[in-house]
Amino acid sequence: MRFRSIPTMLLCMVVVAGLMILHGCAGFGRSLESPEISLANISLQEAKAFETTFELDLRVFNNNDVPLEIKGIKCELEVNGNKLAKGVSATQTTVPAFGTEVVRMVVYSSMLGMVSSMLDMIRSAQSDQIAQNLNYKISGRLSIGGDSTMPWSFPFKSQGELDLEGISTGKTSP
């Protein structure tokens, strides 16, 4: 095939390149359903003068027909509407297709945040007794691997009720 002019040749190259890109992007057409994340466990790790450390076990539910390679997670914990703790983790976990895995991470709270939350809890208690359950909400972003051109990040939110006795024994009720 002989081209009569350089603009015609450039136009053909652009069309061919466009078709190649569209063909290459066909693999990206697969849409992933956002994984569900819930709090599986919380335990107090360490309390210092200015900081408290908690360990969270987050249950990740993969509703997709392909495994998800988790690369990292960012999480914030609220208790009774107060931001209590936050953390990030560069975890390497694979959640099988239509399966679940527990991702363990550490979150940090300032002692001022802890004291503020406790005061709010005491103020809201009835009959001068501390309630046995606290409302919690976790939120954040889950990053999963993809090829270098298409990493994925999913926001998540989950809420439930914490049993105060469960925190001391390392158990929660979802």
Count the E strands: 8
Provide the domain count: 2
What structural class do you assign from the helix and strand content? Answer: alpha+beta
Mean pLDDT: 78
> End-to-end span in angstroms?
69 Å
Classified in CATH, the superfamily of the largest domain is Immunoglobulins
Summarize the structure.
Helix content is 22%, strand content 47%. By secondary structure, the chain is of the alpha+beta class. It has two domains: 1-29; 31-169, Immunoglobulin-like (Sandwich), CATH 2.60.40.10.
Explained architecture:
The chain starts with 5 loop residues before the first helix and ends in a 5-residue tail after the last helix. A hairpin with a 3-residue loop joins strand 1 and strand 2 (51-61). It is of the alpha+beta class and 174 residues long. The strands form 2 sheets. Strands 3, 4, 5, 7 and 8 form a 5-stranded antiparallel beta sheet that branches. Strands 1-2-6 form a 3-stranded antiparallel beta sheet. 22% of the residues lie in helices and 47% in strands. The protein has 2 domains: 1-29; 31-169, Sandwich (Immunoglobulin-like), CATH 2.60.40. The chain is elongated, with a radius of gyration of 24 Å.
